[in-house]
Amino acid sequence: MDSMVGQAVVITGAATGIGRSAALLLAAEGAHLVLGDINHAEAQETVREITEAGGKASSFEADVSDDAQVRRLMAYAADTLGAITTVVNNAGVQRSGAVEHLDVRDWDLMMAVNARSCFLTARHVVPHLRKAGGGVIVNTASLAGVKGGPGMTGYSASKGAIVAFSKALAMELAPDAIRVNCLCPGWIDTPFNRPAISYLGGEDQHRDLVRRTVPLGRQGTVYEAAQALLFLCSPASSYMTGQVLVVDGGVF
Fold it and tell me: What residue ranges carry the coiled-coil annotation (predicted)?
């Protein structure tokens, strides 16, 4: 249980769901963490759980779609941790709706929080990773970014942008020993999916869809998604960059 010992990790969107589970897991594996999240109170609760278990973490309130706030987050993390070696871009929002009814403000929100945040984080963290002699960037996209679906045009577009951005960034940063990979979860049992479930017509319709379309016949857990993030962050994936890891129960 020490695959991340000595690693200084920034995780965005770590207050709840996959991000929270990943923070707990990475801390248990020895990483020292800074959690960046707009939901500061919930992020502090994650920090409390980590520190009570003997881990090291702190939180920083930040809107990851805002350039200045992301810059301050990375400066805080570098100062607090002494360096930054790993970044997990996990912050995200989801809105669903038929394309003719999807509000333009929802489209812009998803592009800002989902896609733009990955660009801003990379923009401000790369100098720190170079200073550390290399590092890791993991961007959380979605199955929706590689396989579209009804009512998911805006969300799919924002997550597909993350996939393409990750591939290009990996090629750009490989000479600096900075690895960039992308995680694409499918149906994960988390409140994050409430907008999509509502669009489908409710919990019963959602369960039926999962039974019909997921070969393993169930949703994944946040812990299963977090295990995949740990793999991409750890030396176990040291010869991987520019890759898209789909964790979806066999859908794609």
Answer: none
DSSP 113: I
* 155: annotated active-site residue: yes
45-84: pLDDT as tens digits: 999 999 999 999 999 999 999 999 999 999 999 999 999 9
Catalytic residue among 155, 199, 223, 239, which?
155
Three-state DSSP at 87 gives strand
Note the pLDDT tens digit of each residue in 195-241: 888 888 999 999 999 999 999 999 999 999 999 999 999 999 999 99
Which domains occur in the chain, in start order? 8-247 (3.40.50.720)
Q: In whole angstroms, give the CA distance from residue 141 to residue 145.
A: 6
With b meaning 16 or more CB within 10 Å and e meaning fewer, what string describes 185-200?
bbbbebebbebbbebb
